[in-house]
Amino acid sequence: MRRRRGVLLTAALLAQLAAGPSHATAAAPTGQCGVVRSGDTPLGGAEVTLYQAGDGAGAAPRVLARTRSARDGRFVLDYRRPEDPRAVLYVLAGLPGPGGARGAGGPAVLAAVLSGAGAPPELVVNERTTVAVAYALARFTGPDGVAGPDPGLRNAAAVAHNLADTGTGGIAAPLAAPPNGALTSTLAEFNTLADLLAACVDGAGGGVGDPCDRLLDLARRPGRERPRDTLRAAVDIAHDPGHNAAELFALAATAPRYRPALPAAPEAWTVALRYDGNGHELDGPGNIAFDADGNAWVSNNYRYGADPTVPVCGGDTVLKFTPDGRDAPGAPYRGGGLYGAGFGVTVDARGSAWVANFGFQGHGCPIDPAPLERSLSQFAPDGTPLAPPEGWRADGIVQPQGLAADRSGTVWAAGCGADSVTRVPDGDATRAREVPTPALHKPFGAAVDPAGRLWVSGNGSDSVQVLGPDDTLERAVTGGGLRRPLGIATDSRGNAWVANSGILPVPCGDTTAGDLADAAVAGDTGPRPGASVTLIRSDGTPAPEPFTGGGLFLPWGVAVDGEDTVWIANFGGRRVARLCGIDLTACPPGFTTGQPLSPPDTGYPSDGLERNTGLRIDPSGNVWLANNWRTLPLQTNPGGHELVVLVGAAAPVPAPGLGGAAARP
After folding, report:
1. DSSP strand pairing (411-415 vs 400-405)
2. Which of 69, 326, 423, 549 supports an S-S bond with 75, CB 3.0-4.6 Å?
3. What residues does CATH 2.60.40.1120 cover in the chain?
């Protein structure tokens, strides 16, 4: 049956190749040299096919060229480069099938992305490049190949080059060097995943019980079809990284080809990549918002300082990172009243970035923050400040925290120090108006649902308040486990998900950053009562009991992905939690809403994480987290210095986020 499938697939590919380009105007002929290897061993007889990824969800990939590798593993692909510079090109190398049968019918399939970082003089296709494709393009790789919309797919291809170097087959520079490299276990994990695929390449003979069958069985997600080859197996592992983690590690140990490798099995096979920009700009990143191109705008608590014992003042920049983690042109940006931004950053319907100036600063800073903690900053897409030097000021903007924007252009700010919210209609700050929120004390998190309603969490009142698009007070919610709530997010059906820290007091009004630090450190070592997630239905009714498990520790940031799955950051425990959402078809059979998808006791842990606040999901399905504070937060300068990205872990979310987790892109 497996060989017959391979013959059918080969016939289909030949038909596509004969048909030629279907829509794009072709450029001059191009020759691409390459080599197929497993470790240092060349792989001859591989059927090498170059594809142009499908342009849109469900679109068919297009064959551009096909050849076969020589005995030394080398090949040449002659093709016409698509005229569209955004086209994503990738290569699949199918090794001979069972019994040495020629063709792409075997279970060992290696892959590499050819676009996104410039084609190398010689393309290397090996297990490392395959893992890079499987994770970075996890949410765009299906049974029929790679396809997806722009910019998500294009950005994902660029991220693949942060993991593997397609010119050498080695580790790419961003993964090999600080803040990654030897500083975290991700590089060793990445190599171990490559070893896992090498076990199949070594034993690709077919037959029950061989390494390939073992890999495909272990990688199969509950309730899903068995993957047919090594690439799809790696994609399935990326989708469900906690499934059979120990058994997969044992299989990887049978082919120790890439070093360094993990010494023990991980709790989950998440690939956590850290970004730090130019290395001296992030200090206490608070939260993240994505623009329409998938660029990440990041609020920053403090001015950068490497030494945590030297006092720092409030951050006076907003960061902007490209989808693959580099500084955007001209970034970081200054002006517009920026000072000590906290959890508040959003991008509105016109592409302007907004930042809430909370007034964070380290102990020992000589600046009086009181005049500086009462404004919003606004920036054009190119970083030009649109707010005056003192920022946009209005009643209710006192120690502002959460920000949210809706489809009409309205921006909302939670006034943590004013016990109210401020509505900025059409993004026109000259018309800003304070809206009292009597059910809230210390408003903190803010989210807009698909109907344009605003949901705000009250950290000091254990409550949530709902406002209509016209700022009408619709509902106050208590109960359901709400306890020191922080982040809040809405799903595609208008339900709200609230992260209950249980014990963390936000530092506004009569509470200080020192109080927050004391509670966080105590929570690391003692009981964490109330750490949970509350589901509030769209009608304002909370679920009877909050959800726990899945690695919930000190919940802070929360986001809902394109399949309505719920992701939670923790301000302790160095882990991410993931819960089954309202769409049960995205969960394993028999799962219920709120049931943990991440390992129940540990979540998705990573030694690249510290104390995380903001968590957001980009159009490529990457989960971005803010390393806001160090694990031991000295109050002179407690800030962390990285963003952490779980590559390809979630279902993509279109950007900017203007009301609930929109339909899958």
Report:
1. antiparallel
2. 69
3. 2-168
Cα-based distances in Å from 51 to 91, 121, 137, 635, 665: 6, 18, 14, 53, 21
Q: Which of 117, 100, 152, 109 minimizes the C-alpha distance to 134? A: 109
Residue 102, helix vs strand vs coil: coil
Measured at the CA of 246, the angle between CA 244 and CA 250, to 5 degrees, comes to 115
Closest by CA position to 652, among listed 56, 54, 53, 52: 56
How far is Cα 486 from Cα 483, in angstroms, rounded to an integer? 9
Helix axes 245-252, 211-219, angle to 10 degrees: 160
Domain 272-646 has CATH 2.60.120.620: no
| Residue extent(s) of CATH 2.120.10.30 domains in the chain | 272-646
Q: What is the DSSP string of 570-619?
A: ESSSSEEEEE--S-GGGS-TT--TT-BSS-TTT-EE-TT--EEEEEEE-T
Q: How many CB atoms lie within 10 A of CB 71?
A: 9
| Residue 439, token pair as written in the block | 């059910």
What predicted TM-score, i.e. pTM, was given to this entire model?
0.94
Lowest mean pLDDT among 41-45, 117-121, 163-167, 515-519: 117-121
> What is the band of 28 on the pLDDT scale with cuts at 50, 70, 90?
low
Burial class (CB in 10 A: 0-12, 13-18, 19+), 153: buried
- Structure tokens given for 424: 């900025």
Number of H helices, E strands in the chain: 9, 37
Residue of 403, 402, 540 whose CA lies nearest to 463: 540
pLDDT category of residue 118 using cuts at 50, 70 and 90? confident
Query: What tokens does 611 get?
Result: 């104390």
Q: Which of the 8 DSSP states describes residue 224?
A: S
What whole-number percentage of the chain has pLDDT above 90?
89
> How many CB atoms sit inside 10 A of residue 99's CB?
10
132: tokens are 């890079």
Contact by Cβ (8 Å): 625, 612: yes
Question: If you search the block for the tokens 């000259």, which residue do you land on?
Answer: 430
61 and 127 Cβ atoms separated by less than 8 Å = no
CA distance 196 to 258: 10
The answer to whether the beta carbons of residues 137 and 153 sit under 8 Å apart is yes
Question: Which class in CATH covers the domain with range 2-168?
Answer: mainly beta
Taking CA atoms, 445 is separated from 172, 247, 428, 458, in Å, by 37, 40, 22, 8
Confirm if 140 and 152 have CB atoms less than 8 A apart.
Answer: yes
Cis preceding linkage at 656, omega within 30: yes
Residue 26 has pLDDT above 90, yes or no: no
Find the length of the chain: 665
Which secondary-structure segment (H or E) carries 74?
Answer: strand 74-82
Residue where the block lists tokens 């010689």: 122
- Orientation of helix 211-219 relative to helix 186-202, angle to 10°: 130
The CB density around residue 29, as the number of other CB atoms within 10 Å, is: 10
CA-to-CA distance for 162 and 169, rounded, in angstroms?
12
Amino acid at 650: A
HEC profile of 626-654? EEEECCCCCCCCCECCCEEEECCCCCCCC
